[in-house]
Amino acid sequence: MNDPIRVGQLYPAKMPPTVSRPTGPNAGQESFKNVLEDKLLKFSGHASKRLEQRGIEFNPEQLRKIGSAIDKAAAKGSKESLVLMQDLALIVNVRNRTVVTAVDGGSMKDNVFTQIDSAVIVS
Which residue stretches does the UniProt record annotate as biased composition, category Polar residues (predicted)? Predict the structure, then answer.
């Protein structure tokens, strides 16, 4: 507070220190963890329960397709998306990359999906 202001001075007398990167055996782990979590597909407890009740399991190719559908929805600015895949409907929170619920073909008839802002059809 007692630093005088000088006419023509463009920068503070003391420059703030530059951001340093962590060093040591754990350097960069946190950022890698954050990047990885941003790319992972997650299932909420509710969705996991529904998938288990309905005997639905995904193979790696299906999981890749769901991830790709989420990427497409995110690119368009979607927040909550309906992902239709064969005889399965998934409601996905795009920002968190989390499947919120899952409905199989038999349970999909006469259903109304609300609180979504987009739909992605996966072939």
Answer: 20-30
